[in-house]
Amino acid sequence: MSVKAFELVPAVERDLLMGDKARINIECIECCGKHLYMGTNDCFIHHFLLDEVTSSKGKLTYSAQKLLHKYLGLKKPVAELRAASALERLIVLCDGIVFLVDMVTLETVPSAAGGGAKIRGVTAFCVNENPVNGDPFCVEMGVISSKKRTVQIYMVYEDRVQLVKEVTTPEQPCAVSVDGYFLCLALATQYMILNYNTGASQDLFPYNSEDRRPIVKRIGREEFLLAAPGGLGMFANAEGVSQRAPVNWSESVIGAAVSFPYVVALDESFITIHSMLDQQLKQTLSFRDGHILQDFEGKVILASTKAVYVLVPLPLERQIQDLLASHRVEEALILTEGAQQNIPKDKFQILHKRILQQAGFIQFGQLQFLEAKEHFRKGQLDVRELISLYPLLLPASSSFTRCHPPLHEFADLNHLAQGDQEKVLRFKKFLISYLGEVRSTEVANGCREDVDTALLKLYAEQDHDSLLDLLASDNACLLADSVPWLEKYHKYFALGLLYHYNSQDSAALQLWIRVVDADLQDSTRSGLYEYIVDFLCSCSNPDLVWKYADWALAKDPTIGVHIFTKRPVSKDVTELNPEDAITYLGKHSQALLLFLEHLVLERKIKKEKFHTHLAVLYLERVLSLLSEAPADEERLTRARERLQALLRESNLYRAQFLLGKMENCEQLLLERATLHGKLEENDKALHILVHKLKDFSSAEAFCVWASSCRDSAYQQQLFHLLLEVYLDRNLPGKSQAAAGGGELEMAAVDLLNRHGEVFDAVRVLRMLPEGWSLQLLRPFLGRAVRASMHAGRTAQIAVGLAQSENLQLLHDRLKDRKKPIFVSEKKGCHLCHNTFSEPDVVCLPGGAPVHTHCVAQRVRDSPTKRQLTNSSNHT
Amino acid sequence: MPEVSKMKKPDVKLVLLGDMNVGKTSLLHRYTERKFKDTVSTVGGAFFLKQWGPYNISIWDTAGREQFHGLGSMYCRGAAAVILTYDVSNWQSLAELEERFLSLTDTANQDCIYALVGNKADLTDPRAQLSQDSDEASKDRMDCGEERTETQVLSACPTPPASPASLSGITLGKQVTPEDAMALYGRILRYKGLEEKSSLPAEKMCFETSAKTGYNVDNLFEALFDLVLPSILRNKNENQQSPTVDLEECRGAKRGRPGCC
Ligand SMILES: Nc1nc2c(ncn2[C@@H]2O[C@H](COP(=O)(O)OP(=O)(O)OP(=O)(O)O)[C@@H](O)[C@H]2O)c(=O)[nH]1
Ligand SMILES: [Mg+2]
Hints:
The complex is a heterodimer of chains A (875) and B (261).
Chain A: E1 6-12, H1 14-18, E2 26-32, E3 35-40, E4 44-54, E5 60-71, E6 78-84, E7 89-94, E8 97-102, E9 118-120, E10 122-127, E11 139-145, E12 150-156, E13 161-168, E14 175-179, E15 182-186, E16 190-195, E17 201-206, E18 216-220, E19 223-228, E20 232-237, E21 247-248, E22 255-259, E23 262-266, E24 270-275, E25 281-286, E26 290-296, E27 299-304, E28 308-313, H2 316-325, H3 329-338, H4 345-365, H5 369-378, H6 383-387, H7 413-417, H8 421-438, H9 448-462, H10 466-472, H11 479-488, H12 492-501, H13 505-516, H14 528-537, H15 542-555, H16 557-560, H17 562-565, H18 578-584, H19 589-602, H20 608-627, H21 633-649, H22 655-662, H23 669-678, H24 682-692, H25 696-706, H26 712-727, H27 738-755, H28 761-767, H29 774-818, E29 841-843, E30 849-851, H30 852-861, E31 871-872
Antiparallel strand pairs in A: 1-28, 2-3, 3-4, 4-5, 6-7, 7-8, 8-9, 10-11, 11-12, 12-13, 14-15, 15-16, 16-17, 18-19, 19-20, 20-21, 22-23, 23-24, 24-25, 26-27, 27-28, 29-30, 29-31
Helix pairs in contact in A: 2-3, 2-4, 3-4, 4-5, 8-9, 9-10, 9-11, 10-12, 11-12, 12-13, 14-15, 19-20, 20-21, 21-23, 22-23, 23-24, 24-25, 24-26, 25-26, 26-27, 27-29
Chain B: E1 12-18, H1 24-33, E2 45-52, E3 55-62, H2 72-76, E4 81-87, H3 91-101, E5 113-119, H4 134-155, H5 164-167, H6 178-191, H7 202-205, E6 206-208, H8 217-239, H9 243-254
Parallel strand pairs in B: 1-3, 1-4, 4-5, 5-6
Antiparallel strand pairs in B: 2-3
The complex binds guanosine-5'-triphosphate and magnesium ion.
Magnesium ion binds at residues 24-25, 39, 42, 61 of chain B.
Enzyme class (chain B): hydrolase
Subcellular location (chain B): Cytoplasmic vesicle membrane; Cytoplasmic vesicle, Phagosome membrane; Golgi apparatus
Family (chain B): Belongs to the small GTPase superfamily. Rab family.
């Protein structure tokens, strides 16, 4: 399990350095741009020029050219070399002495007049790469001297070194690194951070430097990498806190460096490479006789005792692709995201998106849909990449081509599922849910047609409930592509909806009608017929309505007529002309009747034509029922009730015309009476009711009905007429049948007793036959007397009240006569609040002056029309 | 050398301490990945960043092995909460907390809070044996008080109940009762020189969990997150005037940049 993050490339081979002199070892190296310096155990410094060569295949090699070597004259190994390129000096540690050497000539720099260029008794030193002192022409250096428990801070100039600070340490230090004011020290038994400016210190952790060589490596601003017990690489910052988890090295690490995002470490036989992002070991390279590992300006250089190598990082993208190729999605993403700061922002975003998408496809292929979806979302995947994996889902017209290089290795779904139908189904279910989620987000921008069409196809194929929701709401499904697909899966109802959405209502209707007529099979929608009726009902195109209503009416006139009766009243639906509809409905008598009922009874349209038409239709039905033998009494009664109700309640039909139609129909006497009543032929009506029908209660009801909107005089007249009819002695046949005469008289008595209040009692008394007993008329008479008494008394009270009011007004008038009433242009009228412009005023009771016209107005408006007096001409 | 990019700085730090094998890594796994998986003894330490509302909480999992003991102080530096973990089936693991681990917490924040967590409760407490998903866990949170008292009643028996594991032949160390843990909590407060009255009560800070079944795990972490919230807010405040930034400013002033010290 490894990543290929680095490649080991030889830089300076053994021959070039020492030829055949076997005892020469490399002790230290320094690299500064193309210049590579090497210190050896025989006290030489070698200077090479290192050139990077990239082969045509992209392979990197180094070619080294020896420029110079120089013996330092101390017979001891060169322990450390550090370049101060701004000063053109190399800082050299050899034989416990630090001194300066010219970078070009390798000549030792003699001491300047003012001060020494040498420090003695040094065991180790380090250069501050992040000095607080910003002077570019000096270098700050931390120095450990062999005897005292101190660290000294020196400034190195071109020709001299200057001690600027000395801090004591609790134990003898053996390794040092510095950043800003912070010294990071390996002491004999522990690591510590020491601020040389303030003297403040912070213990890090214990470490026995006798057992293992400590490592103190600055890896960034105020952050250090330390070798810890148990072979750990620990991170610590200047505050003494670890902000990254440690990496797990071997116990014998010699050197370490960071080449972000990796920690590279060297032990006796291996180079190990850990990721700082997840602490995992990513790569191991075998390396014998490893001796030095250091990084110079981002370049990691290694040396065995005899040769030098460069550890060249592979391009990040290649590493990531390697990880993806072995399906290590998490690691690939961690690596990508970890590189964020090292890559320009826009470039990073492109890379990151692509990796997320690739990661998503890997997880998709492994049926880890939740993770895949998340990565697709974060990577802003063009959904068509996904759709295109499913054969035939993208519309033929889609301009989409898969991105290159490809985001995945799958040809299509079949390739991916390898014939496993259960898998295929799971892939499809995923796409359904994914498309369903993204179709209304910006992910679908610019490809809504492709998304919706693909979704439609999946829904249809999978018999998914949401197919109808998709089509009934805003969608971008392509008609041309969807039609054959929906037909294939017998989704005719849905197809109709799609036609409708594309403003092809006629096609929709034709299709649905074929389904209702069982030409086509689609059970999606039960009650499709009713649906079509509803559809026509709210259809805004009258031509379509005329075209398809026939079919609907033929199928079921009572429901079909809803097309006409249930049309919503709104701007979007054009009003159908009722007369046209009536003409149209001519051949559908039942529907026509329902429609007229709708117009007359529900919408209460006041048009003679409709009312007469409806009445005629009712009448025709009654007549046809009457002509049946045997008559269906129940239906007949219902039909007559309807007819009667209409005749009674409507005032718009042509009564004479209807009367003509039933003139000689002796079975429809009641209806005829009603019509006579409408024509105000009350006597004829009552005659029919009393003499032909002998239906006294109907006669009474007729009086009540016929006078219902009239004044009481009319009513009285009508009731008197009825009374007369009852008492008419001259009628032929009446004297013959005494019993019948008695019947009429009884009816008259009942009428009087029941409706006494409407009669003029005096007139009635004159009309009544002499011989009638008082007892018989007792209720009538009693009520009549009481009513007359009541009326008399009420009148008396009214008189009394009027008199008293009159008196009151007289009193007011007298009072006001005594004093003047002031009227001026500044005074307002109490009624209209305007000022007075002329002296004619009227005083209200109480004396307030008002305009004469205001009073007139008020009197006109007041219900009691009281007269006001007190007119006055005073000013 | 290029600057190594700085990590997104967490707002607050929690540290898991305790002897090896008590289940620190397993607890963190259970909480972050919601499962119990095989672990290897932790090397050095590891940490996990938890997004808690708008805050980043880093939870450090330390190594219990003696070899890495020295690193403990550093991990605890600046911690807002320390989770002292023991194994309820192993008396020694509780004793180790006091003997070895308590002193490591000297570097933690002044107002650091301490939780005592007895893990592997599934080995001793039948209720912790039911595997819990998050729903049950939240229910459990509500029942928490009631359970606590029950546990006390249970452990009020003069002799500890025979452990189910020892019946099945596995020998375990002497078990730890909640009282033992609460007594240790009292001693921790004393060690820290804290008043019992003004500190968080033992009942609230002693937990029994099972990383194996998930018992009480969410409860533990979320209770602690809530408790360190004030610490987070203070950190955020201080960050606006943190000592490191001050230093930079001073340095800037010396370089002649417009500074403000
Ligand atoms: N029965 C049971 N076993 C557990 C539980 N938690 C952890 N274990 C087991 O205990 C052993 C140690 O778990 P770890 O999580 O690795 O312990 P640790 O505290 O991280 O150990 P170090 O990393 O060495 O300090 C493993 O075998 C786990 O399976 C628990 O709640 N119940
Ligand atoms: Mg662990």
